[in-house]
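hey can u check if this looks right to u? its 270 residues, i copy pasted from the old doc so theres a chance i mangled smth
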Amino acid sequence: MRSILKIFLLSRIDALLFCLAAFSFVSILKAQTANVYIQPVEQNINADSSIFVTVSISNVSDLHSYSITLPYEGSLVEITDVNELDFFAAHSILFFPKINSAQNSLLVDAAILGPNTQTGSGDFFEVEFKAKAAGVVHLNLQNIILRDSQNNDIPFTTSGGIIRINPVTDVSEIYNERASINTISNYPNPFNNSTVIIYNANYNEQIELKIFSLLGDLVFSKQAMGIPNVENKFNWNGKNNLGVELPSGIYLVTIFEKDIFASKKITLLK
């Protein structure tokens, strides 16, 4: 009876040790599996803005080459640039990004010249997107191939990312919601170094002049006295309130006077 009990206990211990060994082996394999991923995982931008997405890898051993496809929603974003990053920086490599606008996808192939390999974690490449319209862009890496110098496949996991694009509000609509009897003009328009902004005032009171970018950012503001029945003038030099020159573009001049206002688009050309 004791022999039977001893055999039973030993078999249970052996089974437990086997399970622990198997669990440890799976954990080691999982820890060593490469992960190809997108960062940041989630970003928020406005339409007409640019954003950068990085494709990276972690825990890879003896990587010699990779091939990655990145599809995207062409109605919402477009790719404007692709740049190699530092994972293969210690080697001479071939780096081939190919944008297929018809299929809304990016294919990137890269390989080390010669038999060398790279181990560790780092960034493969960076993609610059230009947002075209509001919506949600789901970025999921596809057709991933990782290979060592013997052309053997390297196992991996992968994860994607999201770009949330907010609609751009036309600031000309915001500031023209109510009717205004003010009028604004400027000359020259377009202008380079400076332009004269001319406006009519309805009251002999303080007015507020504000200049916005088309994204709605306030770039310049000034308060002055408005004089009725004459042309009020202000010379703007294309700089913000800190004296920094603004880039070329279309700006919106808005005059606020009590509860009325008027707006006009002006063009700065450098």
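Helices lie at 2-32, 171-174.
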